[in-house]
Design a protein that fits this description.
This protein is α/β, with parallel strands linked by helices. The protein is about 45% helix and about 20% strand. The longest helix has 29 residues.
């Protein structure tokens, strides 16, 4: 039996908006995902023509994969845990460095229903966005959010937030760089 996944329209709208901005600037995006398990990459590539602006996606669910594929330092994982802003930042930086993207976004969190703790309850998600090219990083943004709901709701809200903030960050970076020094 085959199942069909239908992505929410607001999620696809966010992806469409980000894709349009990337196309306008001839830029590529890369994703590094843990708790969403590739949902963000799937949403982006659900759009026809996404090969013009989607470069690659990393699904790094385990700590070992975060270290091996994205270069997240083992001591960062040991000190802060996988669900932390330092790890989200390192994931985004690793995705940028290991791709030809100008924008990389990363998510790591506790989607539930288990796995939460008092310090990091279910619904805790850390995000990282990096704008640049390779080692030439122009902007880094990290933040932590808490989402309510069951596993699917947390993952969907995470993907939506990651895409909308990526659009904000990427657009702001290119508007300010196009205007030049004030």
């Amino acid at each position: 039996m085959t199942s069909v996944v239908v992505l929410p329209s607001d999620l696809l709208d966010a992806a469409r908006q980000l894709g349009a901005q990337l196309m306008a600037h001839r830029a590529l995006v890369a994703t590094a995902e843990s708790c969403t398990g590739g949902l963000i990459a799937a949403t982006l590539t659900d759009l026809a023509g996404s090969s013009q602006w989607f470069e690659r996606g990393f699904v790094t669910y385990s700590n070992a994969s975060k270290h091996e594929l994205l270069g997240v330092p083992g001591d960062t994982l040991d000190t802060h845990g996988a669900v932390s802003e330092p790890v989200a930042r390192a994931m985004a930086e690793g995705a940028l460095l290991r791709s030809r993207a100008r924008l990389a976004l990363a998510v790591t969190g506790v989607a539930g229903p288990g796995g939460g703790s008092a310090e990091k309850p279910v619904g805790t998600v850390c995000f990282g966005w990096v704008v640049g090219l390779g080692e030439a990083v122009q902007r880094i943004v990290v933040e932590t959010r808490h989402f309510d709901g069951a596993r699917d709701a947390v993952r969907s809200q995470t993907a939506r937030h990651a895409l909308l903030r990526a659009l904000e960050i990427f657009s702001a970076d290119f508007v300010s760089s196009a205007q030049g020094p004030g």
